[in-house]
Amino acid sequence: MIPPNRLMIETDAPFLTPRDLKEKPTDGRNEPAFLPHILQTVARCIGRPTEEVAKATTETAVEFFGI
């Protein structure tokens, strides 16, 4: 129900690695490198293609942060 221009993705770095991450880091640290995993999960949950969600969330972040 979140409009694409309001959706951003993030990790909860440095804690709370994704529960369904197949290979968790030995130190348990969450990293921004896991964003593709988060992206895939969000796309699956909202029923949209991964590429579409990646584009929309990137555009939202760029606008929000002014980058």
Broad shape: globular
| Helical coverage, percent range | 40-55%
Any idea what the radius of gyration is?
A: 13 Å
**Total beta-strand segments:** 0
Show unreliable segments.
none
Q: In whole angstroms, how far apart are the ends? A: 26 Å
Question: Mean pLDDT, nearest integer?
Answer: 89
Strand content: under 5%
Number of helices: 2
Structural class: mainly alpha
SSE series:
HH
Largest beta-sheet details = none
Compact overview of the structure:
The protein has a domain at 31-67. 42% of the residues lie in helices and 0% in strands. The protein has helices at 35-46, 50-65.
Overview of this protein structure:
With 67 residues, this protein is mostly helical. The chain has a domain at 31-67. It is 42% helix and 0% strand. The chain contains two helices and no strands. The longest helix is centred in the C-terminal third of the chain and has 16 residues, at 50-65. The chain is globular, with a radius of gyration of 13 Å. The mean pLDDT is 89.
Top keywords for this entry?
single chain; 67 residues; mainly alpha; 2 helices; 42% helix
Chart the SSEs and their pairings.
Blueprint (H helix, E strand, L loop, with lengths): L34 H12 L3 H16 L2
Helix pairs in contact: 1-2
